[in-house]
Amino acid sequence: MVREITAAWQADELGPAKVVFLRPMPRMAAVVVIDNVTLGPAIGGVRMTPTVSVAEVARLARAMTLKNAAAGLPHGGGKSGIYLAPSMDGAPREREMRAFARAIEQLTDYIPGPDMGTDESCMAAVHDEIGRAVGLPAVLGGIPLDELGATGHGLACCADALAADKVLELDGARVVVQGFGAVGAHAARFLAERGARVIAVSDVLGATYRASGLDVPALLDAKRAGEPVGSFRGGVRCERDDILWLECEILVPAAGPDVLTAHNAGRVRARTVLQGANIPATAEAERILHQRGVLCVPDIIANAGGVICAAVEQRGGGRAQAFGTIEEKIRANTAELLDRLAAADVAPREAATAMALDRLRTAAAYRRHF
Ligand SMILES: NC(=O)c1ccc[n+]([C@@H]2O[C@H](COP(=O)([O-])OP(=O)(O)OC[C@H]3O[C@@H](n4cnc5c(N)ncnc54)[C@H](O)[C@@H]3O)[C@@H](O)[C@H]2O)c1
Q1: pLDDT digit string (tens) for 275-334?
Q2: Where are the transmembrane segments (predicted)?
Q3: Which CATH number is associated with domain 150-358?
Q4: Any idea where the domains of the chain sit in the sequence?
Q5: Is 79 a catalytic residue?
Q6: Neighbouring C-alpha atoms within 13 Å toward the C-beta of 19
Q7: Which fold has domain 2-65+77-142?
Q8: Which residue's alpha carbon is nearest to atom 13 within ligand 1?
Q9: How far is the CA of 185 from the centre of ligand 1 (A)?
Q10: Of these residues, 79, 166, 223, 329, which one is catalytic?
């Protein structure tokens, strides 16, 4: 029986600690997976889609356990899924979020945040009901992490650490960014501010290229005006996915999962890949990149800026503290990753996962065992 229940998702010595099925309202179902709370209460987003599955929520919760541990946060990993299409109209969604909040009130070791289909107003409703949520509106003490570019800042700090270790030179470095959203656009901005040359960017509709470097502030203005990057007058329009194979020092995949696969990883001509999206490369692609000498900094190290920002918000900190903490943690973690890679013949994913597991084991020794 136990095998049947757990077969749908990964269950091992790390977790999940709890898988809770909820019926907050008639015709509304939700699931919360609290994967591991060794380091502290689990932080993880609330995903609202009609197609979300328990296995997906469990996999995302595990990814949060590893990311929070690798980032050095006093938080475990969790995630929840609400089986509903996000509403365009605020009122019914608010009712649903308030019902969800009441349903998770007793799960005090889970702190929800925004994810696909939910936003800061959803978190405001949850917080109003149970006094527990991150990713809140600024007026309630939230730090608008996507607007400020917390994850993009973290990616640039990761590049700083690579430069400090002489892996690359940032001044004049050619950068390619896939996805010009909250993560990619700010990564381009922060890297350009460090003297890098952003030679190509893409969004879902197309891409733009300029060998001498795109004018990133002008691109951001065009984005704010609602223009797709392919229409940018300061660059040459090109096929969306062609930019992934350009020769460059830094490739930032910041769109979706599984972009780099066993079939195309051999075409990557970047010297380093900083994973802006979650799992933008399959395990096989990461192995191929490693064999080819391309340093691929895993998502759990490189894109932790958003969750570090959320953890600072949870403690009442503001923007400056969040950006300082992101810099400190991501630089230190990238440096530790490089040390581990230099010390042993391991791939970056293996080394990053070992960093997270070491922290979890060390913390576990302080927990009650009887
Ligand atoms: N927002 C964060 O702080 C954060 C933190 C960690 C990880 N992530 C992950 O990073 C990814 C991007 O997040 P975001 O917040 O920037 O999302 P977003 O919706 O703001 O931006 C996504 C961008 O990718 C583009 N895009 C989509 N499909 C594409 C494709 N096939 N080729 C090129 N561009 C494409 C979109 O047009 C858009 O510009 C997501 O997978 C998200 O889960 C986000």
Answers
A1: 999 889 999 999 999 999 999 999 999 999 999 999 999 999 999 999 999 999 999 999
A2: none
A3: 3.40.50.720
A4: 2-65+77-142, 150-358
A5: yes
A6: 19
A7: Rossmann fold (3.40.50)
A8: 183
A9: 10
A10: 79
